[in-house]
Amino acid sequence: MVKSGFRFTLGLAMAGLLVLGGCSQQQTPEPPVAKVEPKVDTLFGEELVDDYFWLRGKEKPEVIEYLEAENEYTEQMMEHTTALQETLYNEMVSRIQETDLDVPERIDDYYYYTRSEEGKQYKIYCRKKGSLEAEEEILLDHNALAEGYDFHALGVFDVSPNHNLLAYGVDTTGSEEYTIHFKDLTTGELRDDQIDAVGRSFAWANDNTTCFYTILDDAHRPYQLYRHTLGTEKADDKLIHQEDDDAFWMGIGRTKSEEYLFLSMGSITSSEWRYLDADKPTGEFAILHPREEDHEYSVTHHDNRFFIVTNTDEAVNFKVMTAPVRNPSRNNWKDFIEYDPDVKIDDIEAFEDHLVVYQRATGLEQMRIYDFEDGNSHVIEMPEPVYSFSGASNPEFNTNFLRFTYYSLVTPRTVYDYNMDDKTREMKKQYEVLGDYDPDNYQSERIFATAEDGTQIPISMVYRKGMEQNGSNPTFLYGYGSYGISSDPWFSSARISLLDRGMIFAIAHVRGGGEMGRPWYEEGKLLNKMNTFTDFIACAEHLVNENYTSPTRLAINGGSAGGLLIGAVINMRPDLFHVAVANVPFVDVINTMLDESIPLTVVEFDEWGNPKEEEYFHYMKGYSPYDNVRAQDFPHLLITAGLNDPRVQYWEPAKWTAKLRANKTGNETLLLKTEMGSGHSGASGRYDYLKEVAFDWAFILDKLGMGV
């Protein structure tokens, strides 16, 4: 029986009964089965057969009907967990301060902050003038803007230098394509200016009239920079720069010193920065240093110098150099922080009297403070052995206070103001975890697994005290391992629902991430990508061998490129995992990387390789999850997708699901859940997001026999 381009299987051959969604009269519903319509290509003498290529094209009714049928099947298969989902959701909501206020941030004579109100999905953006006792001014109520929309996200949110205008970008589909609006903060009225189909990058010039923004190409790449003058039509905006190299993205920003605008262009392995006096927005951007192969750098401004984080001169983990503003050519660069192979420099931030260096040593984040006056430096001490932090925007240039947010696997988000002169800190706020949460009831630690080649792979863990290493503990193992992005330990009040049910939560810091420096990333990309997957398997095996857990008690999770990780390891070692959740997974590696019209493809040749080159083709085909599905038992698997996702197109998880369903043996559950009105990051509202988390976790707990 064929229904709009896909076939539903009969639950009982003799029943003769079938309804939309695949439910027969038997107790367990049958899943929809996608039709097989082979698309055959040949590359390097090897035949590539894609049975489900037809799932590309969300404008086709048969595609939407298939996705909706999968959603209906998922809903039916998860119906028995409805009470558990509700319990988890209520637990998560009960721990958050629903009506809350973020720490105000001073910019000139204003204090800017956001706040939330009970029952409302989104933030309210506010400010006060002169003091925190002044009358509140609401700049933007995101809840009011979002009324009537299933999805609503803000991109640009930038107040003009004179504090009289607000530019904000709106995305109502999850496509990450924004419309910029301008609000007059003196009258509260919207201006007629409106700029459609832009990215997230935006900057004001110092005249409070001129602004710059980026436009996206068909592959969703920011490739054009335009200059707009308030009060004029978009058609009159001037194209300032067009980036014709498909491997490069661009961004625009204004320095903390407020003296310059920076136009940055970068690929995964190369950079180019241009600068313009922010007081002269109609001038020409000057190139600081032209792009070079395998040379990455970033720039900040201080006084008469540019500070440059660069990997030049074989500084694999980066170093800091300076260049005079009057002539910043490469032959005038001088070392400010000499290269140290044991320290990875991630970023820098310049204040009037200090330079803050964000770095990594022995896998842990650090903040090193340099004093311009005496030349001394020190590292800010942290209270726990395993921790993480995030910098605030720190918009004020002339201050000796550095604001940052500290957290660990057991310590909630805590905002500090750190005095860079006397080395003291003031806690401005610790975000409250309501209920009976006590960090002393939980234990965090870092252990190491041994990879196939002998490399020691860190694992960060947290669990409730009293855990016994008897092999019976349910364990949630998370992984990512791409783009040099570090999966540093983070706090989650929602996660308490797992820990209090006896679950261990662990992060596998596999190669391909950046936790242990730039070489850690290089050893997990391109022709080294297999290390990412074997590292994760080694971490799982270590947890089993050390009696933390067992394969029948082990759940794994990853999203996007982390979903690639999940797809690869369940193909390689399906016996090692009992349940897996792959969120918006990048799994159709060969087909995606062969199609240069798809967003991110050309940009990411330096991450994955170009399969049009034979060596890369064979290597990538060796791990691509979609291409390596075969007849075998798989773990219980929940796959999620976003119909409007510009980063991982919905058809990747949909095709993967269809192929798994056609090939897998055994009776393990396979579900596909597609959000039909959102993109890569899922729901935009905070309550809707927690419902998605509760759904995923209910699936895991249910399959681990903990669904009560």
Key features of this structure:
single chain; alpha+beta; Rossmann fold; 708 residues
**Poorly predicted segments:** 1-26
Quickly name the level 1 CATH class of one domain: Alpha Beta
Largest sheet: 8 strands, mixed
First CA to last CA: what distance?
38 Å
User: Widest sheet: strand order?
Assistant: 34-35-37-36-38-39-40-41
- Rg for CA atoms: 26 Å
CATH homologous superfamily (4th level) name of one domain: Alpha/Beta hydrolase fold, catalytic domain
Helix/strand class: alpha+beta
Indicate the mean pLDDT: 94
- The strand count comes to 41
Count of helical stretches: 12
CATH structural architecture of one domain:
3-Layer(aba) Sandwich
Shape, per Cα inertia axes: globular
Q: Give the helix level as a range of percent.
A: 10-25%
CATH-assigned fold name of one domain: Rossmann fold
How big a fraction of the residues is strand? 25-35%
Description:
Mean pLDDT is 94; it is low at 1-26. Helix 2 crosses helix 12 and helix 6 packs across helix 7. This protein has 708 residues and is α+β, with helices and mostly antiparallel strands. The strands form 9 sheets. It has an 8-stranded mixed beta sheet, sandwiched between helices. A 7-stranded antiparallel beta sheet has the order 11-12-13-14-15-16-17, with no helix packed on it. Strands 6, 7, 8, 9 and 10 form a 5-stranded antiparallel beta sheet that branches. Among the domains are: 296-432, Methylamine Dehydrogenase, Chain H, CATH 2.130.10.120; 437-582 and 699-708, Rossmann fold (3-Layer(aba) Sandwich), CATH 3.40.50.1820. Strand 40 (636-642), helix 11 and strand 41 (670-675) form a beta-alpha-beta unit. It has 12 helices and 41 strands. The relative contact order is 0.10.
